[in-house]
Specification:
13 helices; thymidylate synthase (FAD) activity; 3 domains; Gyrase A, domain 2; thymidylate synthase activity; 47% helix; alpha+beta; Thymidylate_synthase_ThyX; two-stranded antiparallel sheet; methyltransferase; 5-stranded antiparallel sheet; 302 residues
């Protein structure tokens, strides 16, 4: 289960005691506060705190740019202008703090986004729970033959069963040995900071992760992308739903210009102009490599 009965009781208690405030609040994210959104088999994402909303972005932009934004007729239009022209600091005025429970191998991929503040559960001081990520059968896939970082066909039948059994057996055995090394019943027991090194990377860890909206959008652009690894993508997709409720105007602009849009090189733009004039442009006449041309065609053909 994603959260324990004790955690559920704590969440209920927190939500039952709203506090008066003079600061700006966003009703969409207020509804998410403290609630655990399940991810994978034992993981979750929950909002612990936030600062700012769409109006904070607009307020910061008008302080920064002054007369330069007077031609923008409304707040939503200004936010779209800022997103379209790659302004960053107005979006940094909004921040969010998340409590995330996730497998360690996902955390190690996630931590590459170095523009956040992180405080992780410490296995030096505490004992890890016996919870492991075991993929659903439809997520068991062979190595892709064309992408060194991706998955190929889904494993089936006896092969899928064999792999699942290995994952479950290895995780359970490692944790059994972890407990055995920690055991102090009549023995010294190994220090927690040493015993933890035997644990597999599919065991769950937890952390508080705080970041601003500009850097969160960068995270979502990469990790909520269909090409991202499934196990981190499902976390990003849950966070994206929260962000859409928190800052709807900013998220709509992000979805349009970043998630749904595309960047075109000067060479690609030249090819598009030639195509619009009726020229039959080929890879050989495009000035692009085969890889660039393949990606260019995929972009314009959808």
């Amino acid at each position: 289960m994603p959260i324990t009965p004790e955690q559920a009781a704590e969440i209920d208690a927190q939500r039952a005691q709203p506090q008066p405030t003079l600061r700006a609040t966003a009703p969409g994210i207020e509804a998410h506060l403290y609630t655990a959104l399940p991810v994978l088999d034992h993981g979750f994402v929950r909002v612990i705190d936030y600062m700012g909303d769409d109006s904070a972005i607009v307020q910061a932009a008008r302080v920064s740019y002054g007369a330069g934004t007077k031609h923008v007729s409304n707040d939503e239009g200004l936010i779209r202008y800022l997103m379209r022209h790659w302004h960053s600091t107005p979006f940094e005025m909004c921040e969010i703090k998340l409590h995330v429970k996730l497998p360690i191998f996902v955390a190690r991929q996630w931590i590459r986004h170095r523009t956040a503040n992180v405080n992780e559960y410490s296995a030096r001081y505490s004992i890890m729970d016996r919870e492991f990520y075991i993929p659903a059968p439809e997520q068991l896939a062979a190595q892709s033959s064309v992408n060194n970082q991706g998955r190929g066909a889904v494993l089936e039948g006896a092969e899928a069963a064999r792999v699942l059994e290995i994952l479950k057996t290895d995780a359970g055995r490692s944790y059994d040995h972890y407990e055995e090394m920690l055991d102090q019943d009549g023995k010294q027991g190994l220090a927690r900071e040493l015993a933890r090194m035997n644990l597999p990377t599919n065991i769950y860890t937890q952390w508080y992760w705080k970041t601003d909206l500009h850097n969160l959008f960068h995270f979502l652009r990469l990790r909520a992308d269909p090409h991202a690894q499934y196990e981190i993508r499902v976390y990003a997709e849950e966070i994206a739903k929260v962000v859409a409720d928190w800052v709807p105007a900013a998220y709509a602009a992000f979805a349009d210009y970043r998630m749904g849009g595309a960047s075109v090189s000067a060479t690609g733009l030249d090819c598009l102009r030639r195509m619009l004039k009726g020229e039959a442009v080929t890879q050989e006449t495009s000035g692009m490599s085969k890889g660039e041309w393949r990606e260019f065609l995929a972009m314009i053909e959808g």
